[in-house]
Each structure stands twice: as C-alpha cells, then as structure tokens.
Amino acid sequence: GAVVSQHPSRVICKSGTSVKIECRSLDFQATTMFWYRQFPKQSLMLMATSNEGSKATYEQGVEKDKFLINHASLTLSTLTVTSAHPEDSSFYICSAPTAEETQYFGPGTRLLVL
Amino acid sequence: RKEVEQDPGPFNVPEGATVAFNCTYSNSASQSFFWYRQDCRKEPKLLMSVYSSGNEDGRFTAQLNRASQYISLLIRDSKLSDSATYLCVVNPSGGYNKLIFGAGTRLAVHP
Question: I need a surface site. Which of A68, A75, A112, B48 has the fewest CB within 10 A?
C-alpha cells in the first residue's frame, strides 16, 4: 500500500519553543493532506486540511496562528507548533488520500512539551 | 451528540471467541464508512471499508445499515493478535475529505 512518513517520530521541547513536523507521501502525490491530534485514550481529532498551493483549512477551535501549516509540494506538508506549551503535548498524525481516495496515515509524532 | 459513537469497551474475550462492535453516526448524508485498527501508540491502519451490501474479509465481517445509521464489525475466531483499538470512521462528504473518527473500542483477546 501507499506509504506516508512523518518526521520526527518523537520530540521533547521546552515551553515556548517551536516544533516543526513533516509529513511526506513517499510513493504518490497528495494535493491534500490532513493533520490530526490524539490525546491519551481519546480519538483522533482533525485539526486542519493542508492544501497544496493554497491556505490550509482549520477546524473550529484550532488556532491557525499557533499551528502553521505549509503544503510545500505534492509530497510534503509541514505542521509547525509555535510557542509550544505543555497542553500541546499530544500525538500528531498526518494522513494523505491516494487517487483511489483511501487515506493512509503517517506513523505519528509524539510531542512532549516540558 | 457525537458525530460517530461506538461501544465504550473494553472487550475482554478468550481466543476463538466471536466479538461484535457497533457504531452509529449522526450525519445521514455520510458517504463512506470504514473500520480502522489502532495499536497502542501507533497510527490507525485501514482494516476494511464498509459497503451497504455488507462485506467480509477473512474472519472480519462489516455491515452497514443506512436507514438506522448503524455500522457493525464482527470478528470470528479471535486471535491474540486481534488485540487493539477498533475505530469506526465516517467520511461525511466523500472524496478527498476529512474523516470523522469514533472514540474507538478496545479489544483484548486473552489465551
């Protein structure tokens, strides 16, 4: 099946710093990618839709100035958590749909903000 | 009301048991439906799509009832390796669109 990678897989940072997470579709092109967040024992919640060549679409309650999304190419989307705080600690997962509309998920990035 | 609701779980079953998970969704116009499996601290992986006519993949059978807005997953002859969280997922609009996840039902299969 299609492969989606994420980097880094785990990051620990100090409060107030910014963290960039990359999501790549390795063997297919994705004009759209999705960013999710999952807190412990909760389900995945969509944060935003990343669109190649245009602005991201954010879900209600997600601050676009805090979670910066850039869809630089047809295979790369980045999520930057700016001025991270402990409450931003979570599991961040991206997904990308193939031409057949099946969504494949990246392995996730575990963020811990101290 | 949540957009996708699932049995709370956890389900603790012995090997070889048959177990059924239920799910309801609130948006009657939803286009496509899936069951995903998520192992602890891993990303979700597609288990199977769910079609109106019902579909089967080995030990797994999925059913969709659009009138009742109800989705089910049946696992027969449970294996230890089936232990995971099963996520009911709905695509409200079809196409390259967002997925709505249920909270998941945890399954633990014991020897």
Answer: A112
